[in-house]
Amino acid sequence: MQRFVVHGTQATARESRSIDGRTEEVVRRTVPARPRAVWLRGLKMLVARLLRWNGRGLYLAPALWIVHLALQSAAPGAAVLIFVGLVVSFFALLNVFILLSAILWLVDRKGAQAAAVVFDLPPRKVIPQDAQRHVGVLRAIGPSAYGDLLWRDAWDGGTQRVAEGDDLVLEREDQPPLILELSATPEVLGRGDSLLSSELSEGARRALGLGPSERLRAIGLRVGDRVEVFVTRPAESVTLDTLTLHGRARSFHREDESAYRGGVARADLVRCNPQERLVIRRLRG
Q1: pTM (2 decimals)?
Q2: CA 2 to chain centre
Q3: Most buried in the list 13, 120, 127, 281, measured by CB within 10 Å?
C-alpha cells in the first residue's frame, strides 16, 4: 500500500511517497500556473504607485502654509483647495486599492480551489493533447487493504492532499493488460464525493492533521470501474512472470488465461512519475 501526501500551492508542491509506512522518496512537483487577471493586477500596481505619490504629497502639507501666506492676497483659498484635494484623492485611491485587493483575493482563492480539486476540472484542462488513450476495467494487482477500493484521492479544501492506493491494472478488450506503476500521484478525473476523515487511514489523517469527523472532497477508484487512462509515452512490453515494480516482484494473473499468445503471459507497462503524470478518468456506468 502506497501513500502520497502533497503540500503546497498550485505553483509548486512538496510530494512525499511512503510504502508500508516508510518514506521512500521526496519529490518537488511543479504544476503549471496560468496567470489570472493580469490586467487587474497591473491596475492594482498602478493605484498603489499613485497612492504612494499622494502620500508623499501629504507629507509636504505643512509647506502649504507658506503657500497660503504667499498667495493670501492673490488666491486666498488656493492652499486649502490643494490640501483638501490631496486628502480626498488619497482616501479615494485607498478605497480603490482595498477594492482591487479584495477582488484579487477572491480570484486567487477561486483559482487555488480549482487547482486543488483536480477531479472536478473539465478533462480538456488536464488531459494532454498528444496523450494516448487506453480504455478498460480496473483490476487489483494484489491484495488491497481497503477491499475493492484500489485508489483514493482526498483533499482537505486547502492546499493539502493525500492519496492512498497501489499500482493498478487496466484490463483491455483484445489487448494485453496495462500495468500502471505509480511512483507519483496520477491525476484522477470524475465526480468527487464528500468524505468523512474517519474513513481515511490513521496515517492519512495524521499526515493532514485532521480529526476523525472532518469533511473532505475525495474520489475513489474501485475494482471493476471502467476508466480511461491517458499517457504521453508508449507502453513498454513486459512479462508477467518476471514483473517487477518499484524494485519488488509482483504477480498478476489474468482471468482469461487463453488470451496469452503461445502461453507467454505478457502485459504493457506505463509509469507515472514526477516528470510524466498519468491521467485516469472514471467513466459512468
Answers
A1: 0.61
A2: 19
A3: 13
